């Protein structure tokens, strides 16, 4: 599912869909257009959106990438943490007092710093995301579906209805728990409705009445 579409309701006659160079997606719609029609419209434009995302991603420079230096901000479960690098023979990363404390034997080794932090994210994504999933699946089914955490470029999650399997994007570990819960419930709902029909969204609303607010927060760039 394409989740990062910002919906803006304005006094206009037609709908306007834009994919920006930073890969943000904005859809401007007249006030009277229903949510169901909006979701249907986005679904029809999915290939067009992906094509433009691919084009912009290929043009992106490394300027927005992490530099892994003291003072840089990293997100974890919706909170900001300041990177503090320590020279140490014993390497690893720990969170303490609002800091990402990175212990490393070679302070200027960019690739090693990157590897340690990415390993930390992956390990904790598998733990934290599964814990939320484990505490949620029984609202939809008694039998726990297969579960996995993966790197995903354009989706926060996916559900394989026929395989009874749910996959979550490992980058969700950067998001608040309420947003992770939204993605989990969204994918669980697909076990009942493997589409984005009106019935699907009605069911999702039954499971999580405030899912729209959580979705907005999930896709905020901050």
From TrEMBL:
One Pfam assignment: YgjP-like
Domain spans labelled YgjP-like metallopeptidase: 13-220
InterPro entries listed in its UniProt record: UTP_pyrophosphatase-like (IPR053136), YgjP-like_metallopeptidase (IPR002725)
Protein's recorded name: YgjP-like metallopeptidase domain-containing protein
Organism: Methanococcus maripaludis (Methanococcus deltae)
């Amino acid at each position: 599912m394409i989740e990062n579409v910002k919906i803006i309701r304005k006094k206009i006659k037609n709908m306007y869909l834009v994919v920006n160079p930073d890969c943000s997606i904005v859809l401007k719609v007249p006030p009277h257009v229903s949510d169901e029609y909006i979701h249907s419209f986005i679904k029809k434009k999915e290939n067009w959106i992906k094509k433009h995302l691919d084009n912009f991603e290929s043009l992106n420079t490394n300027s927005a990438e992490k530099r892994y230096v003291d003072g840089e901000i990293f997100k974890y479960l919706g909170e900001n943490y300041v990177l503090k690098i320590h020279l140490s023979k014993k390497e690893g990363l720990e969170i303490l007092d609002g800091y990402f404390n990175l212990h490393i034997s070679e302070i200027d080794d960019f690739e090693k710093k990157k590897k340690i932090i990415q390993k930390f994210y992956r390990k904790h994504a598998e733990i934290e995301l599964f814990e939320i999933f484990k505490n949620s699946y029984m609202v939809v089914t008694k039998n726990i579906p297969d579960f996995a955490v993966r790197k995903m470029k354009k989706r926060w999650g996916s559900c394989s209805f026929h395989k009874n399997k749910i996959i979550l994007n490992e980058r969700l570990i950067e998001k608040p728990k309420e947003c992770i819960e939204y993605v989990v419930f969204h994918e669980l709902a697909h076990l009942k409705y493997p589409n984005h029909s009106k019935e699907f969204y009605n069911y999702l609303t039954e499971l999580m009445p405030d899912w729209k607010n959580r979705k907005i927060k999930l896709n905020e760039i901050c």
